[in-house]
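Sorry, I am new here, but would you mind making up a protein's amino acid sequence and the tokens describing how it folds?
***
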Amino acid sequence: MISIKKLIERNDAELLVAVLAAYRGLLSAIGESGVQACPPVGSPLRQSLQNLQAAIGPDSTRVQLEQTGQKAEVELRQWGCGAAGYFRQRADEVKELMMILARTAEATGERDQRYTRQFQQFTDRLKSMADLHDLAAIRDSLMQSAKDLKACAEAMAEESQQSVDKLRQDVSLYQARLNDAERLAGVDALTGLENRRRVESAIESRIARNRPFSILLLDLNGFKQINDTYGHLAADEVLKQFGTELKSAFRATDVVGRWGGDEFIAVLDSGDGAEHVSRITRWVFGDYTIHTDNASRRVPVSAAIGLAEWQSGDSVQSLLSRADAAMYRDKRKAQDSTRTN
């Protein structure tokens, strides 16, 4: 029987490749899980882990791998603190709404008790009339009771309206805060574009409406080289600039988002995807300015683009698969053209 030691010695290179692949896959899985568990703070975690993942290769030294593990641990701790803070904030908001409702209910109860006592006084006054024999006194007592009852009813109506208005104002304020939180939860922290979850939701809603639309999937060319040459901060700068330029090439009704890493996506409410591909090539591709070591550099930025038009019966996954296949065909075409030249 071959010992494990001999097996490892015999397959050293293969084992190293497998371990590194597993390590990279683990970082990717952790990033995706972080996004699913808490989207508002999960996107930065996924991007950081993707950057660490991109830096791991066959030539990585033990020291580099240890540093990667330490950085990943720091990122996870930061994500944990951020996620805990986010959920505490949401819990505090729910608690605040419950307190608003409790205060409103308490105020309503106190008001009802106060008017209950006043109505009891009216009842007692009406009962006392039975012992009166002077019609003029009875009439005066009835007139006074009617005035008091009217004033009481008007006061109740006014206080009720004030309570309703105050409750409506408080709930509206809380709803606005929830809307802001929901909006932030759907935004990519780095680029400010829609995040993957929001884009998927937009695609699902369009499929449900059964109306024609298209998607464009973009993957930046040579992004790893920019990241390796100029560093993560410069690479992030490229992503932010590209996201801004890409957004400007579409209409307000279109959805433009960051799909993950150096991939972007656009959802168009029409079938003119080919026209937008041409527009992106002309307006979005080009030289971008990045800043490194107190110096400015110009780097060329382009992307492989995959276009897919929704067809009746398409699911989200099948539509994305066709766009992804078209994107990689475009990338291979560009690579072949570069090698030929």
Notes: DSSP finds ten helices and six strands in the chain.
